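hi! just following up on the protien thing from before. the input was this:
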Amino acid sequence: MDRWKHNATGICALQGQPELAQVLGVTQDLVAVAKPGGIPVHVAGQHRKNTVAGILEALQPGLGPLLPVHRLDKPVSGVLLFARSSAAAEAFRVQMQV
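and the predicted 3d structure came back as:
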C-alpha cells in the first residue's frame, strides 16, 4: 500500500493528512503556520520539496521569502513562525532569546 500521495506541484504527503501546512495568520513581517508532525521545517538532507517552507512556497508563492524564526523537529506538530524578511527574522530571533 502506497502511503504517499502526490499533487501537481510534485509535493507529496502521507495519506490521510489533509493539511500539509495550514497558514494561521499573515502580517507584514510574519507568517504563522500550523505544522503537522512528520514534515521537516526546511531543506535538509534528503528533504528538498517536502518541507513546510517548500510547501508554502509552492502553494502560496505570494507570501514571499520565508525564513524560519525557530524550528520544530520533524516529528513535532505545532505553530511555526516564519519571518518575511531577514530584518524581521533577526528581530524575532532576538526577542525569542530574551
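The beta strands are 4-6, 12-14, 22-26, 30-35, 67-68, 78-83.
The longest strand covers residues 30-35.
cheers
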